Amino acid sequence: MIRLRSPLLAAVIALALACPLFATNGYFTHGQGTASKGMVGATTALAQDALDVETNPAAAALVKNGYSVSLALFSPRRDYTIVGNPSGAPGTFGLTPGTVSSKSEYFPMPAFGYNHRLDDRSALNFSVVAHGGMNTDYRTATFYGTDHTGVDLAQMFVSATYARKIAANHSLGLSAVVVGQRFKASGLQAFSMFSSDAQNLTNNGYDSAYGFGVRVGYLGQLSPKVSIGASFSPKIRMSEFKSYSGLFAQRGRFDVPSSLSAGVAYKATPDFTTAVDYQRIHYTDVLSVGNHLIPNIMSTPLGTTGGAGFGWNDINVYKLGVQWQASNIWTWRAGYSKCDQPIPSSEVLFNILAPGVIEDTLTAGFSRQMKQGGNFNMAVMYAPSKTVSGVNPLEVPGQQQIRLKMSEWEVEFGYSFGF
Fold first, then answer.
1. CA distances from 390 to 77, 311, 339, 397 (A)
2. Residues in contact with 106: Cβ distance below 8 Å, sequence separation at least 6, in sequence order
3. pLDDT tens digits along 360-400
């Protein structure tokens, strides 16, 4: 039996909740676990190590006893550009022209997973991961508030999973998920006139919220070469950020949107596997994310059910991953994903705070079997620069253009034992 020291687990939990980040598919990360990330997260139909259970709970019944731990260095590069001078017309809200970059650029992202086989048919799994979030840090009064403008949202998922084989090559899994979030916002005083609670709108430091949800999954091997998988997580209702009840809809609630994924893996040879995944993320489940800026901000105060949000669309994500076991020691991976654009051009003003405009993601990685046992894993990710432009909706039509720009890279190192 593998024994894990509680200080290590406590450190992972603390670091996961303390790390703000911005992920590749809106604010969802592209994968969980170093091996999965090397294949851009296209592992719904694969069971490789303890952290694959974060993608598909049914994988726990097919994974051996063991643990996986990883630490990534994630670097998003974000900026916005304002083109055109403010009109100064009554009732307008023009922004200062120029380009401003977010200053926070490096974030550590930990993950931990442990799988324990109860018998030949069933298993328990425990994991702690940083799932996603958003962060901007502009050292200027973007909205004429304080000289620091931005938001900082971090999400941590703690999952306990039970999986069981329902036939020789088919399994089902169920995860109980506890979610912790922390959030702060700065420099939004100019929106006080639109808020239902201006005292709880901005500059109140960090606040925390918690929620409980589930994730279900199926994984089946149809033949020695073909396996299929699917998983679904309903919307997770979170407690309120009371210090920001005048910003987010529903008195400060920022729920976790529902998501589903389905995948097929094909083993062309004993050493080469191709995997294709489809993921759907329902950002419109969350009113704080899905509500539109216009006309909501003119008709309904911020913080109420119909208050303005980021106006994000639901997105589809298409993933292709490959894996080549070159020898008993080396395994190589690569992947590419394409997702819909979550931010419409009509929503660029508020999304200066959350410019999650990435559409394309490229990954590569490897595993090396160590002499003392276990595997050393590495994965890299690059998301090329993407720009979304639109007019300032609170200015004279055509007076100002807003351009949001973002690119990302990530390097992750991991170690897995028992697989």
1. 20, 13, 20, 11
2. 73, 74, 75
3. 999 999 999 998 889 999 999 999 999 999 999 999 999 99
**Quick one: which H or E segment has residue 220?**
strand 207-221
Is the four-CA dihedral 38, 39, 43, 47 of positive or negative sign? negative
d(CA 202, CA 252): 12
User: pTM of whole model > 0.70?
Assistant: yes
- As a whole number of angstroms, the distance between CA 263 and CA 33 comes to 17
What CA–CA distance (Å, rounded) separates 320 from 334?
9
Identity of the amino acid at 171:
S
pLDDT at 8: 45
Q: How far is CA 63 from CA 53, 70, 123, 242, 408, in A?
A: 9, 18, 8, 41, 31
pLDDT for position 49 = 92
pLDDT of residue 22: 56
- The gap from C-alpha 271 to its chain's centroid, in whole angstroms, comes to 31
Domain boundaries, the chain: 6-417
- Looking at this protein, which amino acid is placed at residue 229? G
CATH superfamily, domain 6-417, is: Outer membrane protein transport protein (OMPP1/FadL/TodX) (2.40.160.60)
Low-confidence residues of the chain: pLDDT under 50: 1-13, 16
196: left (phi over 0), alpha (psi -120 to 50) or beta: alpha
Cβ contact 125:163 at 8 Å = yes
pLDDT value of residue 21: 52
Residue ranges with strand state E in 222-281: 226-233, 259-269, 272-281
Chain Cα centroid distance, residue 123:
26
- Selection from 209, 211, 115 nearest residue 160 by Cα: 115
C-alpha neighbours within 13 Å on the C-beta side of residue 141: 8
Cβ neighbourhood burial of 367 (10 Å; 0-12, 13-18, 19+): buried
Supply 11's token pair: 């450190």
Structure tokens at 214: 């589930």
Cα within 13 Å of Cα(328), Cβ side: 2
Nearest to 192 by CA among 301, 298, 334, 282: 301
DSSP class per residue in 48-66: -SGGGGGT-GGGGGGSPSE
For residue 317, list its beta bridge partners.
279, 339
Q: Which residue has the tokens 């590749």?
A: 24
Token output for 155 = 């999400």
Sequence-ordered strand ranges (E) for 326-396: 330-339, 360-369, 375-391
| Confidence (pLDDT) at 9 | 46
